[in-house]
Design goal:
Blueprint lengths: L10 H11 L4 H10 L4 H13 L5 H15 L4 H11 L3 H9 L3 H18 L4 H10 L4 H11 L10
Helix pairs in contact: 1-3, 2-3, 4-6, 5-6, 7-9, 8-9
């Protein structure tokens, strides 16, 4: 038998439980609460209450996630932005997180990703370029890395 409606936890309590597990973006939390059957007005009220109490900060979470994605998955800015967007970060939070990306850091990350890839694959510059593009690195960074690590290989002409 299903519990009576008054026995179900409200949106705020559910949100607190979810935040106790890990931080969430507002949009991510909203989707989860609605999916769990919470009413939209209750969800919005819970989110506003949590934000006012300092429990929701999309910008800080986006910065932390961007840093984690750079360190653990060695992703470039484009892939980080896509991942943050997929998780529910807003445009402002994504811009703030990417604003802290250092271009020198991007080159070092791309170089490290390329070296790791080359350790297990043959030195096909096209395949390496595709790998780095999937990781979200800019074309100019990819071309620089290809020229650095595979100087004798032919690279496609830049558009």
């Amino acid at each position: 038998m299903a519990p009576a409606e008054s026995e179900l936890p409200d949106a705020y309590e559910r949100a607190l439980r979810l935040l106790g597990i890990r931080a969430h973006f507002r949009a991510e939390l909203r989707r989860k609460l609605i999916r769990k059957g919470c009413e939209a007005p209750d969800v919005e009220a819970a989110i506003e209450r949590l934000a006012a109490a300092g429990h929701l900060d999309d910008v800080a979470l986006a910065r932390g996630e961007a840093d984690r994605l750079r360190r653990t998955r060695r992703l470039g800015p484009a892939a980080i932005a896509a991942e943050l967007e997929r998780k529910g970060a807003g445009e402002t939070a994504i811009r703030a997180a990417l604003g802290e990306c250092d271009t020198e850091d991007e080159g070092a990350l791309a170089s490290e990703a390329a070296r790791r890839w080359l350790a297990t694959h043959r030195g096909d510059p096209s395949a390496l370029g595709r790998h780095l593009a999937r990781k979200g690195f800019a074309r100019h960074v990819i071309f620089r890395i290809l020229n650095e690590l595979l100087p004798d290989a032919e690279t496609p002409e830049s558009d």
